Amino acid sequence: MGVNTEIIIGIVVAVVVVALLVLVVGLVRARRRRISLRDTAGDPTQAGPREVDRSGGYTAGGGFNFSQGGAATPTPTAPAPGEKPVAPDRGEWADLPERTETDGQPGVGDDAAIPRDSAQRGMTDLSLPDPDLYDPPATPQDPDTAADEAGTTAPDDLSGLTEAPAPVRIDEIAPVDGRLHRLRGRLARSQGVFGKGVLGLLGGGDLDEDSWEEVEDTLLSADLGSATTTAVVDRLRAELATASVRSAAEVRELLRSVLVAALLPDLDRSVRALPHADTPAVLLVVGVNGTGKTTTVGKLARVLVADGRRVVLGAADTFRAAAADQLQTWGERVGATVVRGREGADPASVAFDAVAAGVADGVDVVVIDTAGRLHTKTGLMDELGKVKRVIEKKTKVDEVLLVLDATTGQNGMAQAKVFADVVDITGVVLTKLDGTAKGGIVFHVQHELGVPVKLVGLGEGADDLAPFEPGAFVDALLG
Ligand SMILES: Nc1nc2c(ncn2[C@@H]2O[C@H](COP(=O)(O)OP(=O)(O)OP(=O)(O)O)[C@@H](O)[C@H]2O)c(=O)[nH]1
User: Fold this and answer.
1) First-last CA distance in the chain
2) Is the distance from CB of 475 to CB of 184 less than 8 angstroms?
3) If you take atom 14 of ligand 1, which residue's CA is the nearest one?
4) Which portions of the sequence form the region Disordered (predicted)?
5) Any atom of ligand 1 within 6 Å of the Cβ of 457
6) Using CB atoms within 10 A as the burial measure, which of 45, 53, 404, 449 is most buried?
7) Ligand 1 center to residue 229 CA distance, Å?
8) How many CA atoms lie within 13 A of 328 on its CB side?
9) Residue 358 gets which letter from DSSP?
10) Annotated binding residues for GTP, as ranges?
11) CA distance 248 to 251
């Protein structure tokens, strides 16, 4: 072998060694950039962040947050009497267009297509507490009740009101503190979308345009709405491009903070249910029929009674007797007095009577359950407007809660907007979140209606109502 051959072999070996070195360095760098879904906790070679705070800042001792109408920090959306609501301060989300989806607004909603005299849907049996826990009613049926049931009293005649006999003992209420946290398992279907779907995609590393489109589609499939989806995706893209996000925990934390921010966590979500000096707090509960209004009124009354409040429930859904019966069952179950008129009575008259009874008895809270079964927007406006006006002859309405069924998605939104146009809604109760993969509707509702989601329904049980708290909710969504 000549000297030239040795030199050539030397050069080839040197080139191979250099090529190998370049390859190894490249691989190490690529690996660092890649986001891994592996949990790095406990792995000393990975400087992952500390354990995520799963409480999401949810106040352990807070439970439900009740405030006094007018005395609470004014919600950006809380209108003064006679004023239109002011849109909430959207902070860094201010760029989002307002009310993006305006197509397909119905007259009143699907319900508008159902004639008043058509067959009504059946009643759902409420599971009542164990009979042993109840003592029999202290008194036999009030003669006025019998008169009312016979339909012999005028609806606005106070003697025709039925007062549910207050039970001596009611079944024990589940603790209210940290309910959303405890009920997180109920969001299992939505967890699949956010906790697995979105997190899985983001954790796949090196996201190309197709992957981002998939993230977008996944968020849209959870009913986040197009405007919020775009804003969330833009924010994620920007953060992932600049921040040194590597581990699964860091990706989760990033997604968490972006979603929490999109829920406008600074909105006042307290329910104005604390009494004034001389008058009770008055809450009006509105929404399309079947969304869970009566159930929500019952669950809310239960929390208030457990909080030591004296509560009157007004059955202003007078379209069918069964609705008032359902409310009365709740009243007996939770220890609240129920004021009702006969079927077909003027809802405003019943609402007035309930508030009058509440004022006379010096109770703390009056909650009025209304009907959502109305033909036209004008009809709805007339009826709800009248209910509110008539109540305000006695005292002010502190809170108008719109109940919205999370499973109805965009249809529900269109209906909700009609209600929002008709009455000044001060808060939303989103029910049936336990039965849907579309937990993203919470984001959409707030964005479209401009009012905070204050409470969420997570089941049919008496204690399946939780105060809405953005951090705890997002933690529950991410699983
Ligand atoms: N899964 C689930 N079901 C709920 C929830 N809230 C209410 N429901 C159920 O939804 C159904 C309708 O609830 P209602 O309270 O009767 O609804 P409504 O709006 O008062 O209806 P109308 O009286 O017809 O106007 C009932 O079967 C409730 O048990 C919830 O958070 N989760």
Assistant:
1) 69
2) yes
3) 292
4) 40-166
5) yes
6) 404
7) 29
8) 16
9) H
10) 287-294, 369-373, 431-434
11) 5
* Domains of the chain by start residue, with CATH: 66-115+124-479 (3.40.50.300)
Q: What does the pLDDT profile of the chain (479 residues) look like in tens digits?
A: 555 778 788 887 777 777 777 666 555 444 433 332 323 333 333 333 333 222 222 222 347 888 888 743 434 443 344 444 445 555 656 655 544 444 443 334 344 434 434 444 333 333 333 333 323 333 333 333 333 333 323 333 333 445 554 544 566 777 777 777 777 777 877 877 887 888 888 877 778 888 899 999 999 988 898 999 999 999 999 988 876 777 888 888 999 999 999 999 999 999 999 999 999 999 999 998 889 999 999 999 999 999 899 999 999 988 777 889 999 999 999 999 999 987 788 999 999 999 999 999 999 999 999 987 665 777 777 788 899 999 999 899 999 999 999 998 777 888 888 888 888 999 999 999 988 888 889 999 999 999 999 999 999 988 899 999 999 899 888 88
- The annotation places the binding site at 287-294, 369-373, 431-434
Q: Are 351 and 341 in contact (CB under 8 A)?
A: no
Residue 237 is encoded by which pair of tokens? Answer: 């893209």
| Cβ neighbours around 416 below 10 Å, total | 28
Probe target for ligand 1 pocket from 295, 404, 441, 460, with the most ligand atoms within 8 Å of CB: 295
Q: Is the CB of 440 under 6 A from ligand 1?
A: no
CB of 310 within 6 A of ligand 1: the answer is no
Is residue 177 lining ligand 1, measured as CB closer than 6 Å? no
